[in-house]
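User: Second chain of the day. Same drill as before.
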Amino acid sequence: MLERVRPVLEIDGENIFHVGGPGMGQTLKLCNQMIAGAQTIGARPRPMRCSMPRGVDAKLATDVFAVSTANCVAIQQRVPVPACRPAGPASNEWRPGFATEWMAKDLFLALAVSRASLDVPVAQNAANLQCFEQSMQAGYRKLDQSVFG
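Assistant: Same format as last time:
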């Protein structure tokens, strides 16, 4: 079946994987979002705030993180300090690449699935979801997920 629809999928998609039967793609997407959400929370302004009072430039810190063990998609694309990433949301009025409400929805679903059927501890995901919920309560629902610090 995948091979029949692959030409259509390739119009918009670059990486197409068959990961199993019904629901497996959704499951894998939720797992991906748990990792992406953790990266976004980890790259929020708090680490930057720890270095800036001591005189470390935020752009320099970002450049160091990008070639160190802190490197991840959030460091590459979503550093929440304007001018660190000119194409990033912080430098562009927080226009969403992925809105806060979308990440909160995905983390909520991942938490629900984990609790209901997998018996997998997901305390970090629950804590990350709480951060995104606080972002939404602060009025950042439609802005990029990296907005709230």
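The mean pLDDT is 89.

User: Great, on to the next one.
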